[in-house]
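pinned: reference chain
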Amino acid sequence: MWSVGVTAVMVAVECLEVGSSTLNKAAMNKGTSDFVLIVYSNAFAAIFILLPSTFIYYRNRTRPPLTVSIICKIFGLGLISCCVQTCLYVGIGYSSPTLSSAIVDLTPAFTFILALISRMEKLDLRVQSSLAKSIGTMVSVAGALTVTLYKGPALVSMSSSSNLHNELRSPQKNWIIGGLVLAASSFFLSLLYIVQTSIIREYPEELMATFICCVFVTIQSTVVALIAERNPNSWRLKPDMELIAIGCSALFAVALRSLAHTWACHKKGPVYVSMYKPLGIVFAIIMGVTLLGDTLYLGSVVGATIVAFGFYSVIWGQSEEEKMIDDKDIDSLQSSSPKAPLLQTKSIFCRN
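pinned: its structure tokens
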């Protein structure tokens, strides 16, 4: 039941993140600076969401003391998070939310490699669970690449005159630069999961760690924005698509996503969290067809099906590993039971 709850939260977060990316793309196409968008999103999340939540949560609870070492590690985590968000928003500005969802599917492969290097994961192809996770990771990446590289014949063609559709499609951007920047974002995101898991295992307070990290990201992204964005008018908030995008990004892409990922990294590990990224391309396709009037191609359906098989393989491997751990814990409890010495004493007494 607990695993089902974690799965439901992670799936919901991925769906909300794709929707938020779509709004951010629309806002950037209307002139919103991607650097300023990062600053305001993190500032709004820290001040209006995470700060009140932290105050309420710890009002009647005692939290573990924060050490200088933990604060320095969270500061480093904030730097990585700032790199992730900067590359992601710049990449979306050059390309589209759909390409972003496709390229970010490299995250499971990067995370799996980094987890092996950091010894957070063990690769033993003789064990079914480890083999299933390895194959599932490769299959999910293959499915994402299928969506990206193979188009195929059109299955469903819909026309739309939506303003949002026009805002997403109007400018012609350099997709090669966008793809490279988004690939860098995927690597930084994988590194973020590894460092995040290490910190939260040492300081198991997800809400406090997320709040402090968000504050650091706000400060760091402000420095970057002041250097990269020279137009003072870019900092003026306009009550249109820009404000909607900032609000949704602060709530869904910063606060809820960061909390959910930190919590899931603590409970399941970095590889498990990264495996939900391939679902983003599925949600992007669904939103594109239903909300934006995009054409549904055979390659999208085939790729999404492959992603689903890979995702199921990893989830099955993770559940099998958890069962093995539970069985080992039960065996260790039974072996440490006081019954064993009594039986040994009784057998010795009978022999005498």
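why pinned: The beta strands are 154-156, 296-297. The CA atoms of residues 34 and 90 lie 6 Å apart.
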